[in-house]
Amino acid sequence: MSFFSSFAAAAAAPPPTVLVGHSYTQRVAFVGPFGVGKTTALRAISDIEVVDTDVATTERRADLPGKTHTTVGFDYGELKLDDGQRVGLFGLPGQDRFHAVWRTVLPGASAVVLWVYGDHDDAPQELTAWLEALRGCVALDILSVAVTRLSGTMQDVDAKLGPLRDVLARFNPVAPLIAADPRRSEDVRLAVAIALAAVSLG
Ligand SMILES: Nc1nc2c(ncn2[C@@H]2O[C@H](COP(=O)(O)OP(=O)(O)OP(=O)(O)O)[C@@H](O)[C@H]2O)c(=O)[nH]1
Ligand SMILES: [Mg+2]
């Protein structure tokens, strides 16, 4: 085939489908301390393959024996809600040195889920510090809190959540706070649904 005939054939062929950008209508960001489970949570619910920026870390924490990687950019996934809406999911890095990523992603967020450790003795102080840090980057009326690593009876869990609810109420009295395990897709879906519902009511 000559150059001219192959050019003519290519011009006559239907154009290829090229997908650029994204199809989501809402953007939910996961924030929280190193190793709390933001990447785990995103992987638990994303219905596309997660694009992550996890790299191997030389630091090991005794309380996180399986934690060999850390997020240095952000994770990206997508979720289709029961009502058909597509949600873009962004998992941010937990380490302070990557805070430039927060300032890039958070301004476009529809809702932000702050994941925190529920089993730390100083969990209320940690939550206070995170809320103070986030206040500078995001409106707290789009924020909700998911508390991890809670076990025991419902009374045990409530006893741990009570002081955290008190802290959150000082920043936003109507912000949702739930117990959630980042490894369980039902918990993570619920955290996302509650975060978006709270924003739409607000
Ligand atoms: N035992 C236990 N382990 C958990 C729980 N939630 C998460 N993990 C584990 O904790 C680790 C969390 O790791 P990541 O998901 O990488 O944490 P991350 O918040 O993305 O961390 P950075 O991006 O480094 O800030 C994983 O090994 C999870 O399996 C929990 O409720 N209980
Ligand atoms: Mg991560």
Automatic annotation (TrEMBL):
Name of this protein: GTP-binding protein
Regions that span the bilayer: none
Lineage: Bacteria, Pseudomonadati, Pseudomonadota, Betaproteobacteria, Neisseriales
Domain of life, per lineage: Bacteria
